[in-house]
TrEMBL record:
Catalyzes the first step in the biosynthesis of NAD from nicotinic acid, the ATP-dependent synthesis of beta-nicotinate D-ribonucleotide from nicotinate and 5-phospho-D-ribose 1-phosphate. Pathway: Cofactor biosynthesis; NAD(+) biosynthesis; nicotinate D-ribonucleotide from nicotinate: step 1/1. It comes from Candidatus Defluviicoccus seviourii. This is Nicotinate phosphoribosyltransferase. It catalyses: 5-phospho-alpha-D-ribose 1-diphosphate + nicotinate + ATP + H2O = nicotinate beta-D-ribonucleotide + ADP + phosphate + diphosphate. It is an enzyme of class 6 (ligase). Coiled coil: none annotated. The keyword Signal does not apply. Belongs to the NAPRTase family. Residues 8-130 form the Nicotinate phosphoribosyltransferase N-terminal domain. Residues 378-435 form the Nicotinate phosphoribosyltransferase C-terminal domain. Keywords: Glycosyltransferase, Ligase, Phosphoprotein, Pyridine nucleotide biosynthesis, Transferase.
Length: 452
């Protein structure tokens, strides 16, 4: 079973609504958009991720005979609806921001244009795919900003909320600027560089720590990194210094040592001094264990001699902001703009575009949110990705997406790069969009729109 494309990985109410739409002839063209209502605390921006999996889902989703048999057995659905599902395909269009793009509240990351039953059905899985990777990419981007020129590795699979989450978190972190992941399957599926050292258990299984170091080095000589804090960190560093000449004579190059516990800053300084005194100035120090962007920023500010970090729980769970206030909402049906006016959840109607403006030095200044077709100055952020159910061009490579994300971070002004929050990019709502909101409200008899 391919969980990535399984149509039953949805909410029951999607199927309920689809059957009702079909029974009442409501199959006109619908426009839905996915966006975030507000930034989480301490976030000045978010980073879009997950589009590739969305496109793959749109192209691949089908109801198998086994799926239909199970649905039939529930007794919930009509024979006519099940016959409709037999030939279900996504035949619509999708427009989106490129993965790795920085964005702000109310700006659509993704727009789906399709017959209403199809567009409605996509809601659950598209939110599921986009929300997770956007959460993790946004968290990872903060870490990249907090630790410039340091090597960051995803160590999060064991703490991720399930296997798919771990895989997609590795992908999202790589997009945001991480150098790689410890998750082997992410290497196979996405081509992400994979990294790994050893566990404390390997050291503990030996009666002698130095013997454990040497055996591991001779078994795994490539990109050799030794874990030195199982017992006494500084003593472990001195054992590495003593072992290094024998390894060098055997043609084995020691790349680094890893610290995983205690006062990492203090240990790193002591270990750096031991390594340097022992002629191992080229050996890097890698650290892991309960790290987040605030600790990375502290290490950077205090010039702690750590060259790279393995980050797990705080990354893959986005510990301080594990979910986004995001939504996939109907913006147009049968050619008429639609919008919610619910308290605290009002939406801007219609098909929209975001135009981004930059200063002369290339830094981001502001965004304009407007109705599609209302051309503004600046760079338009949404572009076609699917037409008539098929991608319009090959998806960009992961390295190309990663390069785009790096360029986006480089163009952030200083206020948005800070970790503490409290700043954001001004997003202006254009008069054309306000007029469209007024038209939508008149159609439903609500009156003038006012601010959403």
């Amino acid at each position: 079973m391919d969980l990535f494309a399984n149509p039953l990985l949805t909410d029951l109410y999607q199927l309920n609504m689809m059957q009702s739409y079909l029974e009442h002839g409501m199959t006109g063209t619908a426009v839905f958009e996915f966006f975030c209502r507000k930034l989480p605390p301490r976030r000045n921006f978010l980073m879009a991720a997950g589009l590739a999996q969305v496109v793959e889902f749109l192209e691949a989703v089908r109801f198998s005979a086994a799926d239909l048999d199970w649905l039939r057995g529930t007794g919930r659905f009509s024979a006519d609806f099940l016959r409709y599902l037999e030939g279900f395909r996504f035949t619509g269009d999708a427009d989106a921001m490129a993965e790795g793009t920085v964005f702000f509240p109310d700006e659509p990351l993704l727009r789906i244009i399709a017959p209403l039953p199809q567009a409605q059905f996509m809601e659950t899985r598209l939110i599921n795919l986009m929300q997770l990777q956007t959460v993790v990419a946004s968290k990872a981007a903060r870490m990249v900003l907090a630790a410039p020129r340091r090597t960051l590795i995803d160590f999060g699979l064991r703490r991720a909320h399930g296997a798919e989450a771990g895989l997609l978190a590795a992908r999202a972190a790589y997009i945001a600027g991480f150098a790689g992941t410890a998750t082997v399957l992410a290497g196979r599926m996405f081509g992400i560089p994979i990294f790994g050292t050893m566990a404390h258990a390997f050291i503990q299984a030996h009666d002698d720590e130095a013997l454990a170091f040497e055996r591991f080095a001779r078994s795994r000589p490539d990109n050799l990194v030794l874990l030195i804090d199982t017992y006494d960190t500084e003593a472990g560093a001195r054992k590495v210094v003593a072992l290094a000449p024998r390894l060098k004579a055997a043609g084995i190059v020691l790349r680094g040592v890893r610290l995983d516990s205690g006062d990492l800053a203090s240990h790193a300084r002591a270990v750096r001094a031991i390594l340097d005194a022992g002629g191992l100035a080229e050996v890097k120090i890698f650290a892991s264990g309960g790290l987040d962007e605030d600790r990375l920023a502290t290490f950077t500010a205090n010039a702690v001699p750590i060259d790279g970090f393995g980050i797990g729980t705080s990354l893959v769970t986005s510990e301080d902001a594990p979910a986004l206030d995001c939504a996939y909402k109907l913006q147009e049906y049968a050619g008429i703009p639609r919008r919610k006016r619910s308290e605290g959840k009002a939406t801007w109607p219609g098909r929209k575009q975001v135009f981004r403006r930059y200063a002369d030095d290339g830094t981001l200044v502001s965004d304009i949110l407007t109705a599609e077709g209302d051309v503004q100055t600046g760079e338009p952020l949404l572009a076609p990705v699917v037409r008539a159910g098929c991608r319009v061009a090959p998806l960009p490579t992961l390295d190309a997406i990663r390069a785009h994300a790096a360029a986006q971070l480089d163009r952030l002004p200083p206020a948005l790069r800070r970790l503490g929050g409290g700043a954001t990019c001004p997003v202006q709502v254009a008069p054309a969009l306000r007029a469209l909101a007024d038209a939508a409200d008149r159609h439903t008899g609500i009156g003038t729109a006012g601010p959403a």
